[in-house]
Amino acid sequence: MSVSASIQIPHLKKGQLLSEWSKDYLRATVMLNDTQRVQLLPSYVHRTRGEKSLAESVSDKTDFTAAINEIKKFIDPEQSHIQLNKQFYDVGRSDGDDCTSVFFELYNKGTDAKIPTDMIFTRFLTLFKGGDKFYEDNTTAIKSEMSKTDMTVLFGKFKKELDKKSSKDKVVIIKEEPEENYVVDQKEQQPEWAKDMQDQLHFMQGQLNECRSHQTDYALSSGTETTESEEVYQYQSSSKPKNTGKKHDNKSSKQSKNCKTCKRSGHSAEKCWKRICENCGGKGHSDFECSSYRKKENNQQRPQSNRQA
């Protein structure tokens, strides 16, 4: 015996009608057949010992509807005509209810209350927009005595018109395509003079970075540190041409300023950052600027001074 695990089988509660409870019971036992549903009735209809005995008395039946109707007339109180009419007119339309569920609920309530079929269908049309026009167009077809098949056909015609009208009333949202952004190469937008200036700027930045690296190496080897502002000042002062008052040719001045060590302009070989000291092997200074060389001179001069003393 397999029972649906998603829906819990409800018990008949106090004050609840058996006819209303049986609908929930059928939904919960959708995986069972009628014989199994009837056999389980005593486990869920047991508010009193008499109700449980009634449920056990129909256990031999194989039709669930017949079994419910058998015990319903003893458990459910007989409703008056006024109560049945009230239930019919209490049927309304909530948000999200479709016309199909509303129509069949009205049909079942109206049939129990013995309401004429034209009144059932008219009541149904009052709950939907466009019902007045449909009634005027189909007045001859709406009769006081119609079979369930005739009412279903008439309902299908109304539903078709309702769906057609609702599809026209839907707002069509046109999706806007995003604007295309065309990527243009920056080199095509820049003029030639801007390219030349940018190349010169990159060259100067490269020289400045190289100068900073050599100054840092020299500071580490000599034990002194140079700030960034001092490095920029030293580089600018070393790269500025001396004003001798004489005019030189650009080509000859460029050739004369080229360093023999690094092959760059703006300084001489004596002040080149790539020059190598012969005493310690460090870069950025010559042997007479070497700190180790100076220490040796000081050590040699001290004994002489002591002797003189």
Structure description:
The chain is built from 14 helices and no strands. The protein has 309 residues and is mainly alpha-helical. The chain has 3 domains: 18-75, no CATH class; 81-168; 199-237 and 260-309, no CATH class. Helix 6 (99-112) packs antiparallel against helix 7 (117-125) and helix 11 crosses helix 12. The longest helix is centred in the last third of the chain and has 31 residues, at 192-222. The protein is elongated and about 125 Å long. Mean pLDDT is 76; it is low at 1-5, 251-255 and 305-309.
Keywords:
309 residues, 3 domains, 0% strand, elongated
What's a concise summary of this model?
The protein has helices spanning 18-28, 34-44, 49-57, 64-75, 81-89, 99-112, 117-125, 131-137, 148-169, 186-189, 192-222, 228-239, 250-257, 291-308. The chain is mainly α and 309 residues long.
Q: Quote the distance from N terminus to C terminus.
A: 122 Å
Note the run of SSEs as H and E.
HHHHHHHHHHHHHH
User: Could you give the count of β-strands?
Assistant: 0
Number of domains: 3
The DSSP helix count reads: 14
The shape is elongated
Class from helix and strand fractions:
mainly alpha
Q: Which percent band covers the strand fraction?
A: under 5%
Low-confidence stretches: 1-5, 251-255, 305-309
Tell me the Rg in angstroms. 53 Å
Main beta-sheet annotation? none
Mean pLDDT, nearest integer?
A: 76
Helix content: 55-70%
